[in-house]
Model the fold of this input.
Amino acid sequence: MSSPPAARSGGLRGMLRRLTTSEHDLHAEELRHDTLEAGATPIAEADDRSMAKVGGVLQTVTLRPRAGVPALLAELYDGSGTLQLIWLGRRQIAGIEPGRSLVAEGRVTVQQGRRTMFNPRYQLRPPSS
Done:
């Protein structure tokens, strides 16, 4: 895997940039790079009602019933935005936990102003180094 853009920009300019950019911004840039490298669409560019392949890191995972049916909710962040992943009828899924990297595929919808994907296909990814 190649280095993220922040690590590749060598020399004094690159070092100065890393020193003056917040850790959050550097992490977001690295996630955006990893997303593109995985062949995924940035979440911010995923249109409503479109099929999309997105990737990122799970920030939160919660169990919340929807209409009396268990639902596992996870928030995926890729550096460009967040997407809510919802698995209906599931209380837990092995490997779906905060901090885990994954790529998900499915139809993007907008629910209450938030990008959402129901019952996505997913592939767990190894932690980035």
Observations:
- Helices lie at 5-8, 11-20, 23-37.
- The domain at 5-125 is CATH 2.40.50.140 (OB fold (Dihydrolipoamide Acetyltransferase, E2P)).
- DSSP finds three helices and six strands in the chain.
